[in-house]
Design brief:
With 128 residues, the chain is mainly beta. It has one helix spanning 14-21; strands spanning 26-30, 36-37, 52-56, 60-69, 83-90, 95-100, 109-117, 120-127.
Amino acid sequence: MTTPTISARSPAAQAFVDGLARGVLRVQACEACSTVQSLARHACPRCGSPRLSWRNASGLGTVFALTQVRRAPTPEFRALVPYTLVLVDLDEGARVMGHAAEGLSIGDRVRAEFFEHDARPLLRFVPG
């Protein structure tokens, strides 16, 4: 079953964005089956339950993949180019995307940090 995800600018994702602004990485968890996910959804992708809640994550995880961005997706990000994005498998089970400190490789243990760019809180992973 595929459940639609919610844009980071939608009210449903506000708990995640508010967490970033406070320096806390948040994940959504199913109250029925305990599945953890990073994207805001209306229902659990595993069991379909609509009983979802936000929880603070440890911010610790392992780099699953990385890529270097050489062309900004929007004018706001041009000042950051080039930069590295990583997919991190959090210890809680969710996979999240964030910016990366220089020198990270697949398989590295990392921890979440937070920074602000263009008045927007963003996630960055550093060796951890």
